[in-house]
UniProtKB/TrEMBL annotation:
One of its GO terms (biological process) is galactose metabolic process. Its EC number is 5.1.3.2. It comes from the Bacteria. Keywords: Carbohydrate metabolism, Isomerase, NAD. Pathway: Carbohydrate metabolism; galactose metabolism. One of its GO terms (cellular component) is cytosol. It catalyses: UDP-alpha-D-glucose = UDP-alpha-D-galactose. Residues 5-325 form the NAD(P)-binding domain. The keyword Lipid metabolism does not apply. Homodimer. The gene is galE. InterPro entries: NAD(P)-bd_dom, NAD(P)-bd_dom_sf, UDP_G4E. This is UDP-glucose 4-epimerase.
Length: 342
């Protein structure tokens, strides 16, 4: 089976994708700087699958010399590119850092790929590239208009890959724009472990349920939605991982650049998600409604038809399963990958 390089493979989505890649028989090489990830996640990936990674390299994708050594050492056939920074608020405060990591890292990676004749890539993009959509559900033909440096950095890399494919038709690229990843591996052994205060709803809710935080802040209850809170397309991380596997498997037969939404096609409000988590955990999740966050939109969910047609992929897991798996991970690992405190 082919060898795949997974950048950012120790992170949340990367580690779950490594599980499905190993289970599918691929040889997996991971490169990760561990700035926002833990090596322990990959130890657990190997334990879960009963298979070993071909290699792990602690390196930054902006480091061309480190990448050259990796490509010279392993017979890499394709790349799944997750590595990058991903907090919207932080990107507004530190735009140059985000462009350096996300755009500069992607340029360095594709340069070294080209030097070694590797021209197949699956890129981890985001629905943030759509900005505030005029309507829902969102399909791949919608206008793009990212409203923050994080989203713009993703969009810039999409443009770079498009230009690369136009300049050299030997390249094949799939851009996966995904919506709101949640949940964890059903074993409870790997999951989302954000550093500091979580930026996303589900890990914050989980930390409130486990007692790490006193209450959830709900940002606005005056949106034009059924209960007034924001509506998002939450997708189980295992469905997302399987989407990356399907993209990789289809990649050789797909000409040029293909852009695909990965979502469920259904939106859930913040309060619906909170109630579902309370049901899954049998814990109360106290919350307080505060003002809207600047830049937040009322509703956002995907039209997943193109993913089904092009990749033969559909999300299979519902919100109850997302919450049950997220709680199993949080309950078994109250401090994430860090050791339990005495």
């Amino acid at each position: 089976m082919a060898t795949v390089l997974v950048t950012g493979g120790a992170g949340y989505i990367g580690s779950h994708t490594c599980v499905v890649l190993l289970e599918a028989g691929f040889e997996v090489v991971v490169v990760d700087s561990l700035v926002n990830a833990h090596r322990e996640s990959l130890v657990r990936v190997e334990a879960l699958t009963g298979k070993s990674l071909l290699a792990f390299h602690e390196a930054d994708v902006r480091d061309r010399e480190a990448l050259r050594r990796i490509f010279a050492t392993h017979p890499i056939a394709a790349v799944i590119h997750f590595a990058g920074l991903k907090a919207v608020g932080e990107s507004v405060e530190q735009p140059l850092r985000y462009y350096d990591y996300n755009v500069g890292g992607s340029v360095a990676l594709t340069e070294v790929m080209a030097e070694h004749g590797v021209r197949q890539i699956v890129f981890s993009s985001s629905a943030t590239v759509y900005g505030d959509p005029a309507s829902v559900p969102i399909n791949e033909q919608f206008p793009v208009g990212a409203t923050n440096p994080y989203g713009r950095s993703k969009l810039m890399v999409e443009h770079i890959l498009g230009d690369l494919v136009c300049a050299d038709p030997r390249w094949n690229a799939v851009v996966l724009r995904y919506f709101n990843p949640v949940g964890a591996h059903p074993s409870g052994r790997i999951g989302e472990d954000p550093a500091g205060i979580p930026n996303n709803l589900m890990p914050y809710v989980a930390q409130v349920a486990i007692g790490r935080r006193p209450f959830l802040q709900v940002f606005g209850d005056d949106y034009p939605t059924p209960d007034g809170t924001g509506v998002r397309d939450y997708i189980h991380v295992m469905d997302l991982a399987e989407g990356h596997l399907r993209a990789l498997e289809c990649l050789p037969a797909l000409a040029g650049l293909n852009t695909v939404n990965l979502g469920t096609g259904r939106g859930y409000s913040v309060l619906e998600a909170v109630r579902a988590f309370e049901a899954a955990s049998a814990r109360e999740v106290p919350f307080r409604v505060v003002g809207r966050r600047p830049g937040d939109i009322a509703e956002c969910w995907a039209d997943p038809a193109h993913a089904a047609a092009l990749l033969g992929w559909r999300a299979r897991r519902d919100l109850a399963e997302m919450c049950a798996d997220a709680w199993r991970w949080q309950h078994a690992n109250p401090n994430g990958y860090l050791p339990a405190t005495p």
